[in-house]
Each structure stands twice: as structure tokens, then as C-alpha cells.
Amino acid sequence: MAGQSLVQYVVLRGDLARSWPLGAVVAQGCHAALAAAHAFREHPDTAAYLERGGHMRTVVLEAPDEAALAALGATLRELRIDHRAWTELPEGVPTRLALRPYPREQVQRHLRGLRLLH
User: Fold this and answer.
1) Which domains does the chain have, with CATH numbers?
2) CA Rg value for the chain
3) Full 3-state SS string of 56-73
4) What is the pLDDT of residues 58-71, one digit of tens each?
């Protein structure tokens, strides 16, 4: 079943994750995941992922800073990998991005340079 290998990757800025309150960082990740799932809700992989309920797999990674997040976004656009980036308003601060759910083997190699958020 294709749904077994589906994963949603969320990438947050590590510099903000270490300077913002934990609740704000968690909210950023939630916003990113929901924005990507909503934007690509018609895609069969997104539907299969959401139907899994308590068996969804989400991986939260960190980009070291704003420049790294922007570079990742540019790479994903170039590769036509569906994702949503988010800029916190009214501050205008790019904070995170999330891919729609994908089979892990399709996108994991493009995210290898990022580490798990800690």
C-alpha cells in the first residue's frame, strides 16, 4: 500500500526555534503542515495520508537560518516538489515550509542536508 511510506516533511528555521518560545515554534510547524495539506488536498497522496488518522508520519527538520530556508524553497520549486512556504505577518519573517505528503523515497534525498529539529 502506497500510504505506508507517505510522510509529510516540515522544515522550521533552527535559529528561530532556539530563540522563540516553544509554543510559538510548535504553532509554526502546525501552520505549515496544515497549509500544505490544505493546498494539496486534492492530491491522492494527501488524501491517503489524511485517511491514515493516527498513523500519519511527519518529520520535522531544521534549516539553520532564513537563507537556508529560502535556498531549500528555491530547490523545491525548481524540482516541482509541492510545498508551501510561510512568512509570519505582520513581521514579514519567513519561518517555515512544509511539503505535501509524499512517498518518502521521492523526496528524502532532497532533504538529506537537514537535520531533525531539536
Assistant:
1) 2-116 (3.40.1490.10)
2) 14
3) CCEEEEEECCHHHHHHHH
4) 999 999 999 999 99
